[in-house]
Amino acid sequence: MSFLTEFDRPLTTDWISIGEGDETSEFYRKIELYDMEWTSQVDIENYAVVGASYGGPVAIIKDDKKFLRVTAQIPVKPIISIFTAAGRLISSLKWDSGILVRMGWSSSEDLLCVQEDGNILVYNLFGASKETVQCLIGSESKEKAFEAEIFPSNNGTGVAYLTTKGNFVVVNNYRNARATKFAQVPFSEIKITSWTVVAANRLTNIVAARETSVYRVDATQAEQVFPEFVSVAGMNSAISFMAASLNGVHIALLTESGILWMGSSDFSKKYCEHTLGLRTKPKQMVWCGSKAVVISWDTTLVLVNLAGESISFSMDSQFALIPEIDCVRVVGNTTHEIIQKVPRETNSVFGIGSVEPGSVLFLASNEYAKGSHKADEYIRTISNMNKAVEECISAAGHEFYPPTQKLLLKAAQFGKCFLTKYNPEGFVHMCQMLRILNAVKDYKIAIPLTYTQLEKLTIPVLIDRLVLRRQYSLAIKIAEFLKLRESQGRSRILAHWACYKVGQTHIEEGKLADEIYEKLKSDTNISYSEIANKAFESGRKKLALKLARFEVRRSIQVPLLLQLGDKDTALHNAVESGDANLIYDVLLSLRDSMPLGQFQMLIRKYPMAQKLYIKYCKIFKPESVRDIYDQEDDFESQAALFIKESYSSQSESKFAARLSSLVSAQEMYKKSKNEFMASVCEEQVKLLKYQQTLQQQYGKDFIDLSLRDTIKELLSMKELKLAEKLRSEFKVSEKMFWSIRLQTLGEHHEWPEVEKLSKTKKVPGGFEEFVEVCLQYGNRAEAHKYLPRVKEDLQVKYYVMARYFEEAADIAYERKNENELLFIRSSCIMSDRSLAEKIEGMVTQLRTAPPDRGNRNARK
Amino acid sequence: MSAFGMAEDEVRRPMNSVVDLEIIQQVAQKDLIALFQKCQGDKAIVWDRALANPMNLIATPKVLKEHGVVRMIQLDPGMALPHDIPETVLFICRPLVQLMPVVATCVRNEEKHRRRRKFHLIFIPRTSKLCEKYLEEQGVLPSLESIDDLPIFLFPLDKDVLTLELDSVFKEFHAEMDPTGMHHIARALVSLQKRFGTPSKVFGKGAAASYVFSLMQNLKQESGSFKPQISGVGMDYMILIDRQIDPLSPLVTQLTYEGLIDEFYGISNNQVKLPEEKFGETKTIFLSSGEELYAELRDKNFSAIGGILRSKTSKIQEKLRQKERGNMSVTEMKQLVQHLPAIQTLKQSLSTHTSIAELIKAKTETDEFLSSLECEQELLSGMGTEKINSHIENLCGKKAPLNTVLRLLLIQSITSGGLKANILQHYQRLIMQNYGFQHVLTLQRLYAMGLLRLQGGSRYTTLRRALNLTVCDVSEINPTDFAYVHSIYAPLSIRLIQHRLKPSLWANLKDSLLSLLPGPTVDEDTEIPVGLISGKRSTKFTVVVFIGGCTFAEISALRFLAQQDDEREFLVVTSKIINGNTFLKSLQEDILSVQS
Question: Where is the Vps16 C-terminal domain (chain A) (predicted)?
């Protein structure tokens, strides 16, 4: 297709083809990321340089010997400097510990410095020491680390040591520092000439070479993979360099004679063998993604792919290589570049002679932008528009230059129009990711990530890294841009910010607290207690207190306030929370941490807390309750306590104690000017004393009967005189006394006595009670005697109650009371139907007779 | 489905069709099961007695069995665990310190016998520091594998009633200043709002009401992400009623069918135990609106029950007779056969309720009942409230049940607006002389809580007039006012709600009313973002919260209000269903149980 060659493709000018230049040839490209800010300060020639992957920072240390070994002979304490990927100095620290064997970065961007004694010193980006991990590498102290390597393991970052005794010791995760000694490599009389760590699939192996023999070592065995490494060319020389790819799948070996062998890391496959032109010892050998190896000399760089084909680059100055999962970064004195295999999709779109749909779509889109009719022509040739769009989107992701990204996205957008069912998610996602990638790549942030790296790293980790760099604002913007949940995004970032702020000791505490509150107040997910804790940790108690007071979750705030010693506020807020558990927590903690008097003064300010404390004491320290009441001059409560006490033991032996409790209660009531209660207590004492005498006298239980029951008991025993005595002694009313007598007599069926009683001159309770008592004890006939003497207006009711319906009806009829008649009828209808009919007759008679004023029944 | 024979009856709106309370039960059940799953294998549950019934509303024994519960044991003082139980033992109890000695004894006993057991302790709804402390002091804490909270705050009693099963919050808060119950209520309400939406207005009266409201505000603030929302249902109002503003209503005898069953036999979580006289044996009957007949009867005044039962019975008999006579057309026959299962159910229901009604009728016809009712109604009408009441005196003389005396005494004390000192003392002395000195502290407490009070600032008379609390001529059969629930008295609590919900009534009364009732007032509109207000909400959904319990009569009165107003539906949330007796029991100072 001729039209494809007509189009000028400036975008491929920096592509370098490797191999024959035929259909199968691969392209590599070198892209400049930054002009280094360190240009005038740093000459890489004099430094050892280590960079963190995923666009991480770069640490350098002056090293005359060009390898990372600071020997004791060097008297000056070297300086370690940390730069961003764009060469801006972040921090420097003076190395004044032991002999540094190796320096490298952890997966969470901490700088690890491995010492000769095996210990790992951990620093953050800002050069502040975080911790020192003790690591025991040798059985004897003489065994030291000779070399070390820092590698990404399946659960973090590991460190591998080659000891001075030729042993390998591996720590899979430096955070837990569990060292595993690996199996010994045979033929220890021959020096280990090179080694590397292969970490793949949860397994960590070491590949080590003694001259020409290669071993694969783990904790249990050392397996010889090449008894004697012989190249195809027949040359036989010691292996001086090794490198495993970051994913641990491939390995490359380099001999002193300049032969490069590439194969799988388990040595089951050999990819190629390549003879380098140079025999000088290279400076570095790393993998470029997993498709090629890059070897560097002073200013030369050679890239060899898996097919054994190579290209070489010539650089302006010395440089350092940083391997990445999909490329290699080249940091030089003036520039920071990446070398990358041109991704498949990019090749599809931009590749010379490409007839892939993406490529045609890109052309079409450009023509369309120019207003050319060719656009239509191109579109028509695209058979798989979906693929075309996808390719353009993916290609956009692989570009670093925003205008190119735009062109590709535009093409994708253009292609989308021709699709009826297109899910725009991929497109939107790419737009979002590119915005983020471009933002973090900016030289001020300097995290040059590729799209592939970002996908692997994930957004939350990227946000963490921004937070780590104190780029809070950008982190929040990204979180908001992606609409992350507050608790994961904004709130978390702000909390980090606040914790950082808290550490800024040069700012006055009050101002700082206000500043933090100002920023955070709109955010309800913030945990102030976390920040306050941080402040407390950094010794700023006043600030911690101020911050703790902003915390809204009382259950978290209160313990913190206690810890910070603000007892008053802690108690106040616990009470405010209405959570009794929290109040008890504070109360018990305060009680144990301050003098009792002070404690009581404090809780007195909070009645609820005081009441709860009393409740607590009632259960756990009953003896202290009275003291509290005493202190509070609460006489009524003390009296109540005494009364309760008087019931707490009812054994006769403690009778005196009971009485004295009641006397005390009486005194308390007197103190509180409650005369009535005082007299009630007094009477009870008197009653109990009586009862005790009676109990002794009659051998019957009297104690704790009510006054009424005491009298009744006496009446039952026919001790009328004694009963009378009690009556007058306790001012029992005539009516009540009568009632008791009547009840007692009824209970004992002493009907003649009842009648005698009825003949007394004055009957204070009325005769209704007589009827009731008779009925209650089943003597209907006796009841009849008293019915006529019942109060007139109650007579019908009582006749009915005693079931003398007929007489009741007569009375009602006589009174011409229709309501009463109806009431009687409804009461007797079930038992006496004929009477009911008779009453109905009475009612009809009453109705026909001229109405007379009837006596209404009181009840409805 | 409308059961046969009810077709011609009044059309009643179903209760609360707005929110589905089943979800509360489902969530609670899920939480419970999740706890069960924490302990592998078969297990025995030792229940706090008071939780057995409410938990039955959450998970049936069958569900428990499916999740490995092979034994259920009641937690009782002095008990020992049987030895043929599984290794895993779950104690499930309320966070009450008085239960802890029983738990501790059980655990220690098992250890003494060196039985291999795994003990777990589950608190419903929430652990208590006092309980944990107690177990710690007793040294049994290490023997417990776990202590968990099971945050079940609300138990659905019916489609429109939720209970928290908190027995004594009224006393705890007002007499002891213990906020535990209030905290639970606030949590329950916040969770309810999370589920069913934020009310657009909140009205509350009384110290406990305003306290709960403030706790709710705290909780919402603490949970941070809580934003006002209207999810499906909109809550129009949330009304918080502190029992303290109306301690009178629970003391008054309930005269509805359900109320009377409760007064005489005590309904506990929809279950009532009835005596053998009518059923041949003590019978536990399950009462809920799931039973169509009961749904119709429960809220009616008892005077109306006989009529309904009679007419329904005769209708059924008529239909069945028709069938026997065989003079029915084919279509009629077909119809009848279709309805036959419903008729059978109804027949069964009718027989049960006829028996219950007879039991109650017998009780209501006794002189004790009638004379006390008469006395009560006189007091409510303001008659003779200022002098010593001879009926109360007589009851004391006869040593009638103390609760009856106390109920009347408190009614007099409240309706009189406080008794003269000498009268109050006379009554107190009377009670102590007849019933014994041990009641002195109960009387003191009633006095301290303002239920028994001294003269001064009579409010009842004014309130009675303003709110029309006593209605003489209300029909018990076809009522036009909810005063029918007590025959002549309309519960103050419900009158207040009725007035608050009607702007025209409220405007006139607001100021005087709120000053007459004790405690602070909450009256707030929630700011709800405009976008959240769903276009049209035809039903006004109102949640009424009783802090300190409510009676069946009050619920009936609310249902009556809902029937009167086509647009309004109520959901009742109560700390507990109470009546005069249980209310008094919760206030008693049990001096004799202090003995050790």
Answer: 526-844
Q: Name beta bridge partners: A658.
A: none
Q: What burial class does residue B452 get, using C-beta atoms within 10 Å of its C-beta: 0-12 exposed, 13-18 middle, 19+ buried?
A: buried
Between A and B, how many CB-CB pairs are < 8 A? 132
Is B97 part of the contact surface with chain A (CB cutoff 8 Å)?
Answer: yes
Q: Which residues is A287 bridged to in the sheet?
A: A293
Strand-by-strand arrangement of the A129-133 sheet: A100-105, A111-115, A120-123, A129-133
**Total count of domains within chain A:** 3
Which residues in B479-539 belong to E strands, given as ranges? Answer: 521-525
Are B127 and A578 a contacting pair at CB < 8 A? no
The pairing of beta strand A111-115 with beta strand A120-123:
antiparallel
Domain holding A568, by residue range, is 553-619
Please indicate, yes or no, whether residues A468 and A592 belong to a single structural domain of this protein: no
Q: Among B177, B374, B436, whose Cβ lies nearest the Cβ of A706?
A: B436
* Interval B85-143: pLDDT, tens: 898 999 999 999 999 999 999 999 888 888 888 899 999 999 999 999 999 999 999 99
CB contact under 8 A, A680 and B397: no
Determine how many CB atoms are found less than 10 A away from the CB of residue A850: 6
ipTM of the complex: 0.90
Q: Which positions ≥6 away from B324 have C-beta within 8 Å? A: none
Closest CA to A476 of A456, A458, A496: A496
Tell me, yes or no, whether A414 and A391 share the same domain: yes
Domain ranges of chain B: 21-153, 159-252+468-584, 257-365, 368-456
* CATH top class, domain B368-456: mainly alpha
Residue A817: predicted pLDDT: 84
Spatial separation of the C-alpha atoms in residues A413 and A780, rounded to whole Å: 107
CB contact under 8 A, A578 and B186: yes
Model confidence over A383-438: pLDDT tens digits? 889 899 999 999 999 998 898 899 999 999 999 988 888 888 899 999 999 999 99
pLDDT of residue B338: 82
**pLDDT by residue (tens digit) across A776-789?**
888 888 888 888 88
Of A607, A643, A708, the CB nearest to B433: A708
Among the listed residues A457, A381, A452, A397, the one whose alpha carbon sits nearest the alpha carbon of residue A430? A397
3-state secondary structure A243-279: EECCCCCEEEEEECCCEEEEEECCCCCEEEEEECCCC
Average of per-residue pLDDT across B507-517 = 85
pTM for this model (two decimals): 0.74
Name the pLDDT band for B7 (thresholds 50, 70, 90).
very low
Per the CB < 8 Å rule, is B133 touching A584? yes
Distance between CA B583 and CA B235 in Å, rounded?
30
Distance between first and last Cα of chain A: 112
Average pLDDT, chain B: 87
Note whether A706 contacts B225, CB cutoff 8 Å. no
Question: Which residues of chain B does A581 touch, with a Cβ-Cβ cutoff of 8 Å?
Answer: 126-129
Contact call for B425 and A704, based on CB within 8 A: no
Window from A779-783, B303-307, B547-551 with minimum mean pLDDT? A779-783
Q: Name the domain boundary from A595, A619, A643.
A: A619
What pLDDT digit, counting tens, does each position of B246-281 carry? 999 999 999 999 999 999 999 999 999 998 877 778
Which residues of A are less than 8 Å from B432 in CB distance?
A: 680, 684, 706-707
CB-CB neighbors (< 8 A) of A615 in chain B: 130, 176, 178
Q: Which B residues, 193 through 232, put their C-beta within 8 Å of a C-beta on chain A? A: 211, 214-215, 218, 221-222, 224-225
b (16+ CB within 10 A) / e for B491-506: bbbbbbbbbbbeeeeb
Residue of B nearest to A617 (CA): B130
CATH no., domain B21-153 = 3.40.50.2060
CB of B403 within 8 Å of a chain A CB? The answer is no
